[in-house]
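Dear U.,

For the methods section draft, I wanted the exact inputs and outputs in one place so we can describe them consistently. I've listed the two proteins in the order they'll appear in the manuscript figures. Please don't edit the token lines directly; just add comments below if something needs changing.

First protein:
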Amino acid sequence: MRIVLALPAPLASVSGGYGYDRRILAGLRELGHEVRVEEMEGRHPLPDTAAEAAARRVLDELVPEEVLVVDGLGLPAFAPLGDALAQRRVVGLIHHPTALETGFSEADRTALRGREQALFPILSRLITTSRLTATRLEPEFGVNPTRIGTVEPGTDEAPRAAGSGGPGCSILSVGALVPRKGYDVLLRALGRLTDIPWSLTIVGGARDPKHARELQTLTEELGIAQRVTFAGEVDGAALEMQYHRADLFALASWWEGYGMAVAEALARGLPLAITEGGALADLAPRDGAVICAPGDHNSLSRAMRRPIYDPHLRRLMSDAAWRAGQALPRWSDRAVAFAAEIEAAHAA
């Protein structure tokens, strides 16, 4: 097949969604498919005129033999082009609907929902990255369930994390600095645990600079700034080393369509401290994780205290996490499944 993937620039962004896109692209090319990437300029997912102009250029430059797949973060920019999307049998790649993103005003969320409710039903197929996201598309966005497929992210074989070696518990959290990730909740939870030794490293780009500054200020207000490192965007061997030296992985998201960073932690046998936001609770083994409601920093704090304090408990949780991680899908078969979804879109 000749496939075009359109997404907001840059493709090199460090996030779970962009990481998924890069791995799928590489896998499709290894399978022999011809793949072209369109990196769209402008503001996304709330599109400005530059974003909508970029969407028009993507459609204008398509040749008849090409299949267009649009990452959901860029789909709202195509809202004025619905008829053309339907005629070209365009496929949507939905990590999670942008209308479910926290950090937007109610007016902006309503606008995004309106665009997605108009766009999703007319696409030839929607490929989601989790079954949970798939279940929400029919009741909330009016999508025919026969047009929905799921290709969950994969993991690579990885060595089991060695841990920090102490003293204290080294906690890792990975994800962009945006409100949906709940870093303020995690920081408030840890701010109640200053009587026990721990350190936290947050790996993720400042996608929302204002929110990133607020998080830094919060660490100072809580008196934990010396324990918290904002590492910024890290990938490749440097990110691998962060996982390898961690003792506990934490994520306090309000919502995750899948939770790639959690899957990567499991693949390395890291015990988890997470919220049940979106698909996270389905991904985590109960004997390898402590799980709390999104937004409840008091409960998260109480749940984290013992695994932070007790190395023996962490070892037992790590064993369970390692077993669960070895059963996760591998990237080696994800591109095959993704290509099959595209073929299904054009066979219907």
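Second protein (the one for the lower panel):
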Amino acid sequence: MTLDAITLEILNQKLTALTEEMCHILQRTGRTLYVKETADFCCAVADPQGRFFAYPKGIGVSGFVGLNALTAISAVEEIAPGDVILTNDPWRSRGLATHLPDLQVLAPWFVDGELVAWGWAFLHASDVGGRVPSSISPTNSDIYQEGLQIPPVKLVRAGALNRDVMNILTANSRTPEAIAGDIQAMLAALQTGRERLNRIVAQHGCGNVIQAQQDLQAYSAARTRQVLRRIPDGVYRFEDYLDDAAGSGLPVRLALSATFTDGAVHLDFTGSDAQVAAAINIPGHGDPHAWLTLRILALVCTLDKSVPLNAGLLEPVSLYAPAGSLVNPRYPAAVGVRHAAAVRVNDLLNGLLGQALPEVMPAASGGTIIPFVAAEIARGGNEQNVQVIEPMVGGGGARFGRDGIDGRDNSISNLANNPVEMVEAETHIEIRQYALRPDSAGAGQWRGGMGQQIHIRILQDDTTLLARGMERMLFQPWGVNGGEAAASSAMTLNPGTASERPLGKIDLLAVSAGDEVLLQTSGGGGWGDPFLRDADAVKRDVENQLLSLDAAAQQYGVVVNAEGVDIAATAALRRQPRPARSAWGAARENWQAVFDPDALTRLNQLLYPLSPPQRQRCRAAVFHPALARLPASFPRDTHPDIAPARQAFADALRALEKQLTAPLPPGDGHA
């Protein structure tokens, strides 16, 4: 029997407050910058089937509301009061954890001997072992290189900490004291949540709390369907690209079709690239995983701002992700930088939904999330100090009627920035500048948001920098409805000196005292014709040093001088013919001119079933003949004659199709 609306709303508010109090406890007692300041953590309450029915609104990582804890729960037998399960394994938890630094804890909450709910907390640990400091490297080729894999095990038994598990974990971490402190913070959050749940049950009754778990999810699912019915029934398609697989030189394609039917949606990732021997794979397990559906959740919560946050938001969403693809890889694929691909999936959904709701959805966001990490010898010299300097993101995409948000990515990231004072107190790093990046936004009637830039100086020898997730260095964030693409990301060593050099993507960058590094992120794409932008808005950007005088004239046709906008000169400039500008950016236009999207889909369908070595060989065999006919600067630079390359690609694909679909010779079959 369902609860009445008033009781349900009271329980919703109390349970949400419970999760937010857990989050505050975790943040205030956490040990590392990534917990205390960046806020890469969350807490929630799950029903016995592992679905979150209570989730915080104002603190923590919002996108994980659709995760499911059932596999991790089921892996541990004989659960008793006071137990706590720990795991970080993306495979043995079926995507509850999505890379090894995300430590997950689950506690069964009993009332009078009855299991009422599960408390959950996670945080991003500073280091869980592996090949590199912070455990995450884009060039890792399998999960064994990424650190200690912890299947679901009991960290706490009947209230007593399992010292064996803690000893194994700390022995494998470069930052043992920090990881132990962060785990204690999660345990404190779980204890607080259990105490608050007991109070709620005492006031409202165990039966009502259990019934509310299902009623809240059903209510959110119904309201989600109401929002999705605003999208006309039909099939929508979109594709986008990652720059490459950890410097491999070949772009990585993500493709998506979505079928909307009466408030439900089915997502199909057929045509996306096969999994790669790099750490950008998303362990989605073929489910409507949070990393693959977050934009749907964001759309619902934008158009219905009071809908309760719980797993019911994703009940109307189904999904197909081919096994062996980037979004459903096979074990033991590396997944440490899965957020880079997840950002691009967000762009896919953004572009796809924009076809149906053009005045609701924005242009592409900056499309990159870069935890910029410093690893150094800690004070005392016995351990390493591994800290995130800043979680660098790009600018927001513009939308109808609004510029993009400057320095904030409106895709999957809701991480906070680290205060400069805290970074300098915790590391031997001097922050010389942390600012918005001028001229980085995509031009438009409503411009994209400006990207960020950070300029650091190294104060200690034997320091290593890592910048995982660097993207949009080649394929720019796209604009819509006449809006233009934003500037690419960039990284520079010792800028403004005789030893200045561009770095491109880095894995481990060894730096010494006195070295300086400038990291610049991309802006968001523009919306609408830039020559329709209000001239006074252009002037304000010039005055705020976000736009140069040259960019004001070239991108917007606005002439700004010491007195303000030169109205006559602006009118004359805006009447002049102007070259066509690409909404996608030159690199994507050039790439797709050679490599036909339908052909890429056929290629990927051939590659999915193959082993990783076979996949690499076949992929290279198809692309190499075409790329050999193009300059090394392709696709960044346009080539005047692409016909030979197109033909070479088509011929190589046909040859591979023939090879892989040919019948086995007599005697080669299996009995």
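Candidate sentences for the figure legend, describing the second protein: Residues 176-204 form the longest helix (29 residues). The mean pLDDT is 95.

Thanks,
Y.
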